[in-house]
């Protein structure tokens, strides 16, 4: 059976002695490790593929994190990956979105923009409103309102445990991603649901 093997050098394995120290002691770079590994899998996955992830020592945390992201968010296609940085920013901050958290349009739901907004075409046809603002301003205002409403839904997701609550939030986010389109080509992001066959963890 053909295989694609990916090895990612973990925290503390950098060539620079300073980088080794920082990575080994503080786990510096782990978030980037998770993002890089997830992106690689998205780029190379084909329907029917089996995914095996193995992590040693601090890499075990990376392995668990990548597996969780794959199962919770699915795999973004090539169109979705164009917004990966913003989507990953949202994903890693789910845990900070509490019922008391106030919506901040600069920091919350940044994966959804005017260029990929599902109702872009509707607002693109809007004329200047009575105050004389441009259609773009009206579109931005409408987007902010919808994101605010969706953020309220996200932050109030419930679960018996933190893990179940985060899973519910990820499902809501994934459902919204399925409706997102690239503003220029109108291609859908459509995350692909996958299952990780096995996760190997070796801690010391």
TrEMBL record:
UniProt superkingdom: Eukaryota
UniProt-listed SUPFAM superfamilies: alpha/beta-Hydrolases
Name of this protein: T6SS Phospholipase effector Tle1-like catalytic domain-containing protein
Matching Pfam families: T6SS_Tle1-like_cat
InterPro entries cross-referenced by the UniProt entry: AB_hydrolase_fold, Tle1-like_cat
Species this chain originates from: Colletotrichum liriopes
Domain T6SS Phospholipase effector Tle1-like catalytic, residue spans: 2-107
Coiled coil: none
